[in-house]
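Hello Y.,

Per our agreement to keep a running log of every chain we model this quarter, I'm adding this entry. I've kept the format consistent with earlier entries: sequence first, then predicted structure.
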Amino acid sequence: MGLELRQQLKLSQQLVMTPQLQQAIKLLQLSRLELLETVQQELMENPFLDEAEVETEIREPEKLTESQAEEELVRTADWENYLGEFSSTSKQSTARDLEVPEEGLSFEARLASKPSLEGHIGWQMRLSDFTERELSIGEVIVGNLDHNGYLQASAEEMAAMAEVAPEEVESVVLRVQRLDPVGIAARTPQECLLVQMEVLGFDDPILVSLVRDHLEDLEKNRFKPLARKFKISMDDLKSYIELLQTLDPMPGSHFSSTEPHYVSPDVFVYKYGDDFVIILNEDGLPRLQMNSYYMETMQGARNKEKDYFQEKMRSAAWLMKSLYQRQRTLYKVVESIVRFQREFFEEGVTKLKPLILKEVAEDIEMHESTVSRITTSKYVSTPHGIFELKFFFNSALDLNDGSQVGSESVKALIKQMIAAEDQKKPLSDERIGEILQEKLEVNIARRTVAKYRSAMGIASSSKRKQYF
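Predicted structure for the entry above:
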């Protein structure tokens, strides 16, 4: 078979992701803080981008009546100057109070750091009569604690790390367990509670046995068998349990490094009359414009410089266009959500309807992927609290009349019922399903109730039951 060259025409479709398109897609899915960082970075790197100054409107002073003028004088008068030496603090002392002695220090250097568990234990060991060898073993022990204060390594493993005998590690562990917080460096909850009981002087044999041998029975509310075994009344058992509840099974949790997550809403939805007003949160977001100086400089630039200037100018123009498109898309998506979920904005979570991305995408005539990206890490402030935009998209449950109800509404009702239940007779998953059938006429199985309850972090009825 001979080889030969041929020309052949072939039609095909392919998506070419230009850098500008990639940037536009990236901007869609950025959170508010990430967007601010991206814009500030572009302002630093692109000379054609400039931050527009916000013009303040100057209004003519209003004509005031005599009484209004007196009130304005009382409100705005410089009473410190007027009172002089008769004021409680002089201007000189006020100025001295405002002086910053740490003028040359950075902002971070003026703040006290949050105490850590490692630092707290290490500080106590150095103030105690630990030898240098014991201090090095203690550092290995502290380095193997989890966020609740429990040891995550065996004595043999820590002995290998510190290059000592396991007996020496055990000796130091016993001493560390009696430092503050008491019970730290325990291997099990039983060991943690027993150490605390020893330090506090709780040496009752029944109490010690309850912790050492029957902690699981207490967790599962098996109170009657325990009362029979120890031949005590339920009231006596209740007093033992109340004493145990004063102990801390997770002594290291107070030093947890987890920080609260603060959210700045991207959109505000306010009720005004019979309608809802949507306002985008543009606080802190720079208003971009082209830098006039570089625009003029580009006119007389040489070829190589002109190519660079044109590239930067196109980049700046595309960024401004992408930002506008992002804000416009966000507004349209929130506007569509408000239309679909109007009953939620009127009455609350229990009125949340089932909604999918496709419905919003068809409503605003955009692709589902665009709606998915714009709802990622975006938050909206509503009359009923701050919610992530993803919250408004939830699955549907069928009602007896053929209509549907949102799964989040069902979860909210389950939470309300459990909060209002009799704690001595908690509602079972089956009973919750029956109540939902009566109230909403919704077809929901017991296992679905259990799944929703577990997703909300609510324990089963047997664990929620209180016997005392």
